[in-house]
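Ticket #4471: structure export looks truncated?
Reporter: QA, pipeline team
Priority: medium

Steps to reproduce: submit the single chain below to the structure queue and open the exported record.
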Amino acid sequence: MIYLQNKKGFSLIEVLFAFVILALTLIPLTKILHSSIPVASQSHRETVALYLAQGKLEEFKVPFEDEPPTQFFITSFDAYPGYSCTVQIERESDFLQRIVVTVKYEDAGKEKSVTLSGLNAKK
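Actual output as written to the record:
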């Protein structure tokens, strides 16, 4: 029988052992990644709601003249279905009005909302 004096490569046991170690380390990592997907999705929806609220707040921040003391608007976003917006404008004083923007959206079957407010000066 001829035996190889120069052993190059890995035996079958060594390869199997390497695969077992690899599998034991990858399984927990995939569980962590799998559990982070809903959190990332939730964060994305909340960030979109914040940007929409900020944009709507800036849209209504224009110098006002003599407007009614309280106004209420309900709008939606064509580019972002599932998001709706309410804007409430209240007179704080003769020279200031408060703008309150609330963006509502659905997340995991529950309705959530983001509210931003700001002050606006008279013209």
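Status: closed, not a bug. The export was complete when the record was re-opened. Leaving a note from the reviewer for reference: The mean pLDDT is 87.
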